[in-house]
Amino acid sequence: MKISDLLKLSTDNLRRRKGRTLLTLIGVVIGTCLIVVMISLGIAIGKQNEEMLRSYGDLTKIQIYNYSYGGTTENSPPKLDDAMLETLKAIPHVIAATPQYRPQNLGGQIYAGKNDRYQAYMDVMGMDPASLQAMGVTMLSGQYLTGEEVLGKNKIPVIVGENYAYSFEDTRKSYNSGKRYVYQGMVDAQGNPVPPFVDINKDKLTLRMSNYDETNPKTREYELVVMGVMKSDYNVGYYTDSGIVMSIANVKKLEEAYQKLTGSKNNGGGVIISGSGGVMREQDNGYQEVYLKVDDVDNVADVENAVKDLGYTEIGSMTQVREQLQAEVRKQQMTLGGLAAVSLLVAALNIANTMTMAIYERTKEIGVMKVLGCPLGKIRGMFLVESGAIGFIGGIVGVVISYIVSFVLNNLQTIIAFLGIQQNMDSMNNMGGMVDPMMATSQSSIIPPWLVLLAIAFATLVGLLSGVVPANRAVKISALEAIRHE
Amino acid sequence: MNPIIRVEHLRKVYRVGKEKVVALNDVSLSILPGEVCCIVGASGSGKSTLLNQLAGLEKPTRGRVLIGRHEISAMTENELAAFRQAHLGFIFQSYNLLPNLTAAENVALPLMFKGVPRKQRQKMAVEQLKLMGLAKRAGHKPTEMSGGQQQRVGIARAFVTRPKVIFADEPTGNLDTKTTRQVLRSMLEMAKEHGITFVMVTHEKDLAGIADRVITIQDGNVLSDVVVGDAEKAANRAALFDSLEEQSPAEPVAAVPAGAEPEGTAANKTEKKRGV
Predict the structure, then answer these.
(1) Residue of A372, A476, A477 to mutate when probing chain B, most B C-beta within 10 A
(2) Which domains does chain B have, with CATH numbers?
């Protein structure tokens, strides 16, 4: 007996009972569809979670917070100063430690162009030049800061973010003209991108501080020398996109000059009142935030413990968040998968039931085939092919329907809008064409190719397995009793 | 001549609840190659049980059955399947055609189990049906045929593989007298033509008269085992078949046109009801 004959017999049998075959198929289709959709939802959740974590930053970074708002007490963490930085760097597995020093009591503007036409608010950040590379900063052009540049008096070496140039505005244009600002991705009427006002590599950047005293105006000027441009990477920090970074020593120099200029003085551990009147610190307790870079994710927990031993209680790292989130996601995925598994189990029972019924119906036929010398294996094969085919076809149809369901889920808003539900249309218009990047990129259902193959294989396997018991039963039927069967 | 079928001290006991029913007590017999053998006996005599034992459909309680050199009473299910496929043919009282297959496909079924390619076996099946006078019915489903036609499809199915032995269990039990005679005659002719050993169970003594050997079973024992003389055989056959000659002189069975068989359809159905 040939395989082709076996297949033909089986498919003929399935076709013979179209109604029942169809019902059984629908069971498998629903089961497969649920499994695929549920898993696709799980995958999407996992992926969103991953993206979210990545947007939070590097997993091997630890952040130490040291805001002593309520004043310092006995139990307060030790002062987070340069000496402590060295202690932190000495912790095993720590490869870099740097504050991101952004002093509150420092004000000024940065100017560029003829007659200081272009202007940007000063928002400088001090970092340990030696830590830049370890923190993940990569240079688009130029070089890293070294902290040992010799440029001359009143010249400060800086590196800037990839899109820092867009921070400048044109002071000659009114605020209403729409020409005062250029932002990244802006295009003109012809659709060409509009360049920023300032060429960061050519134009001279001047930092000017003022005492804002109209009767006795005093200013102080520095030239900022751009040593290099950082590649924009939000995982490293927003400063790589639109920030301006210099060494901590230079930030402190600016801070001192500003205090001298404005008269606000840091009298050594006393009260500091920032120039802009923003934050008040009762006591200088060093840097407020310090970043540590650890050599490997697996060592993050050890380093965290070491930092805690030093007395710092507020420590942030992605590892904690990641573990919590992953546990949560896994729980959700398990729940979804469990639901789907139940439905496929029901489908399997359905197949087994159908095949058992088919055996009762065909008892006599089976007997005749046996008497005519049909090998037992072929009778088993016939039933297995039938149940396997139900699983296979059901799997394929289920996957096709899953794709449709997935498409609908991913485009739910568009579809609702398309159907013309006025309310939703209005609310969408109210968004003013602004597209939320999270909404645009995140899909609620993802069906990767492996899931398609797995689903079809699994459905076929379920079909085959649920056919095993009935098929063995068919083989065991006594030929003699079967022919007598009516 | 060595017998093709040998039965030695065969005993078969059924258990019905706690009671034991002895279907075959102690049966020994031999059938020669090419013989047409009828097993006769009253209902409950054990003749059907004997046939089932001969064909290996049931295991004996004691004793053995040999076909050729093979002891089929000792074979496993799989060996039996292979043996039946290679050497045996079956004709059933209730035809037992597969309802979803056409006449030709039914006839081709044992060829399919043997692995004969589709085209070839289909051709062989149609050829065999032609011999049975059913050429025009090759594409019909069993439900579209009369009882006599269905049984002839069943016979074609048994003969198409040219087996060594064909077993027939009351093959005419559901047919009316005339169809019975036609069917009987075609089986006899085909068996003789191809030298096939033909073993038939019947309860009608007059039908048994056409056989070379008549074995009578009573209460699970062989009552008589008679080789019928040539003259007697000829007389018996003439008595049964001569009436057929008158109606259609040339090739009585094969020449019966498929459509011109109203006697089968109407009569058979009533006949069948009684039979079942």
Answers:
(1) A372
(2) 5-275 (3.40.50.300)
